[in-house]
Amino acid sequence: MMTRQFPGYARGWFVVAFSNEIADGEVKPLKYFGKELVAFRGNDSVIRVFDAFCPHLGAHLGYGGKVVGNEIECPFHAWRFGEGGVCTQIPNARRIPEKARVKEWPVRELNGVVVVYNDPFGGEPVFEIPVIPEYGTDEWLPWASMRYLIKTHPREIVENLADRSHFPTVHKTDIDSFAFDVDGHMANQRTKGRAYLQGGGIDEFSLVATYHGPGYLVTRMNGALQNYLLTAHTQVDEETVDLRFAVTLRIVGDRKKTEGFVAQYVSNLKHGFEDDIKIWEHKVFRDQPLLCDGDGPIGHLRRWYRQFYSAAPGAVAHSENSHLSG
User: Fold this and answer.
1) What is the pTM of this model?
2) Cα–chain center distance at 133
3) Regarding the domain delimited by 12-118, which CATH topology (the fold level of the hierarchy) does it fall under?
4) Cβ proximity of 158 and 305 under 8 Å
């Protein structure tokens, strides 16, 4: 599954949950980046993510651990861990060992999702995920979401951003204009075309799709309905990716009427993603693919994506500004 181009796990922000999946006082075990993690929401409603195993005798904090205030208590011997992952309490102990702590992961909760920052070298975040200003307002519906656990590498998903020629074949979409550009940690696709809907009909659309780092894609689409599409993929391990997608529609006139479009809209998206998944799970990755002039700037996207797998610790490399169109 791995290639010499993209070894290990990428550096950046990755979705590990939708906000509504973790209630106040709830503990949730997670597994990402080949590691066991635990997420919990304290009494202050803030979500924290720690490494899962207690440094004492190795109990998993996500199975039987409980929230006490804004801290998590180990189910085995009631060691308690708070801000910064530091142990704050050990029953019957006269002194807390200096090394009694677990790693706390950088976390942000925004746009209805929980993201953590992964850096294999332990570096601090070097960019942020922007807020979607319309999300959560009265003019837009809440996310309608789906989730897949798929056998692939996230590079396959990212590559779709530059792969112009797969749209007619896989997604039954005619492309009138297509452009791709990168700027630092962001990669953008701008497209206009016509989608032939599964239930019949044609949707004339325009969109701007932007990756903010290697695993968080937001698409703003104007068509029959205005919407945002969130595509988030996070590696579980070297063979498996947790893929989430969600859509929010702008309310047109009557809210209930707009809500009535959601199921059909999500169904169309679902079929589109599943068509991609069938290919992603069974293809091979070619480090040196045989490309033609109609493919789109796949090589340029790979150069942009490679920065998140840099072997050197520290900041994400600043990609050159460029603009390629096909």
Assistant:
1) 0.91
2) 18
3) Rieske Iron-sulfur Protein (2.102.10)
4) yes
